[in-house]
Amino acid sequence: MLGFKSVHDIVRVDDLLAGELPLLMGAGPVPLADSVARANTLMINHLGSTMDTVLEQVMQMGAYLFQSSDATILGVAGPASAGLEMAVSNLVTPATRVLSVCNGHFGMRIAEMAARAGGDVVRLTTPPFHAAAADDVARELRRGRYGVLTICHGETSHTVHNTALPEICRIARAQGCLVLVDAVCTLGAMPFQMADWHIDAAVVGGQKALGAIPGVALVAFSPRACARIEARREASAHWCLDARLAADFWLRRAYHYTAPVPGILALHEALRLYCEETPDERFLRHRRCSHALQAGLRALGLSFAVEPGVRLQTVLGVRLPDGVDARALRESMSRESGVDISGAFGLDIVRIGQMAEQCRAPNLLRTLRALAAALAEQHYEADLAAALAVTKRLLNDAASGRVRLLPNPPSGYTRMRDASVPAEEPEVQPE
Ligand SMILES: *Cc1c(COP(=O)(O)O)cnc(C)c1O
């Protein structure tokens, strides 16, 4: 039975999207840069010399993005979750003991994937809105002979940044345990060093910090992870996600399945924009925008779910004033102002993204205006003028822009600047 009487009842996409597109300021997907959007409209042969060049460059830029010169990078036609499933299902076999650090929804999702792959999974769960402590992980790692540890660099649901990740990776490495990191909401927006931190599998999706589209993801495996995969005797149950088969296409340029061509082109352009901006400048932009927005939100009278030290800078978990209904607020922002922000899997917060193109001054100001208007509808009068003023001041304050990204800046961060352009060191400023 057809669900409609005539095709004329179907509204064209062009008409559905007539007028301005909503400004996506939630936890993903994010607005696309024009050149990324254009790349995503193009179709070429999935095999052949042009695609060879595209893939070759995606690999080169991917190595730079992950900061690893010896990782094997594979792509997957699918959401970041498929990238995670690819990493998990290639490294976890029915004999594998897996320690899954869970700070929320996405940490739990990886644990579930590991359990479905037959792994013997122990979940190390943090209290709500808390980061993982290296000591707790060390204690649990000593207790069992774990083969794989899984963890989110940023846990998007609880808006927590696992700042102890490098330390946790060091501990796991000392125990001979592989580390699988979900970097979906952090890679591209803040420092991440696959090789220096001894990460064995890292996953990023297109749709968040990278500023590309949903439905394509990259998975990077360290040489140790590759050796584990090569040594596997039983075939993975997932034909599409089998790393050894995927290497046919991504490394040997032969057919595995028909690759998501426009998605790969969009990813290529998003990576190119990342390299062109340079990591230093890009991280600075993210940090500056997130700080300016946080100040604006505080000026509106709002607070945050997570303490500053481990607050995820790319997705802010915002507590609303008593009596303000989150769903009604989000609907009003979308309807009246064309600004979309996210709920939080039933948690009592709303989430506002600061990833890729979300981190632009006009987007921040528009979000604050939309938020203030929606709060006013629920009889909460926020000081919008003060919020806009402090946000603008911090956005334009060169000093605030020069705040260092990490208290301890990554020493080995490979630069891709022209030799002729001297890399200037940002001054260190206290927060
Ligand atoms: C969004 C997100 C995912 C899932 O991404 P999909 O593209 O929806 O599969 C996984 N992990 C983290 C940390 C995320 O933020």
From TrEMBL:
GO terms for MF:
alanine-glyoxylate transaminase activity; L-serine-pyruvate transaminase activity
Q: Which residues bind substrate?
A: R351
Keyword annotations for this protein, in alphabetical order, are: Aminotransferase, Pyridoxal phosphate, Transferase
Q: Does the keyword Transferase apply?
A: yes
Pfam families linked: Aminotran_5
Every copy of the Aminotransferase class V domain together lies at 43-342
Residues bearing N6-(pyridoxal phosphate)lysine are: K208
- Report whether Transferase shows up as a keyword of the record: yes
Which cofactors are named for this entry? pyridoxal 5'-phosphate
Residue ranges annotated as coiled coil are none
Q: Which GO terms describe its biological process?
A: glycine biosynthetic process, by transamination of glyoxylate
Q: Known InterPro entries for this protein?
A: Aminotrans_V_dom, Aminotrans_V_PyrdxlP_BS, PyrdxlP-dep_Trfase, PyrdxlP-dep_Trfase_major, PyrdxlP-dep_Trfase_small, SP_NH2Trfase/AEP_transaminase
Q: Where is this region: Disordered?
A: 406-431
* First and last residue of the signal peptide: none
Please report which protein family the annotation says this sequence is part of: Belongs to the class-V pyridoxal-phosphate-dependent aminotransferase family.
| Matching PANTHER family | ALANINE--GLYOXYLATE AMINOTRANSFERASE, AMINOTRANSFERASE CLASS V
The name this protein goes by in its record: Aspartate aminotransferase
Q: What is the lineage of its organism?
A: Bacteria, Pseudomonadati, Pseudomonadota, Betaproteobacteria, Burkholderiales
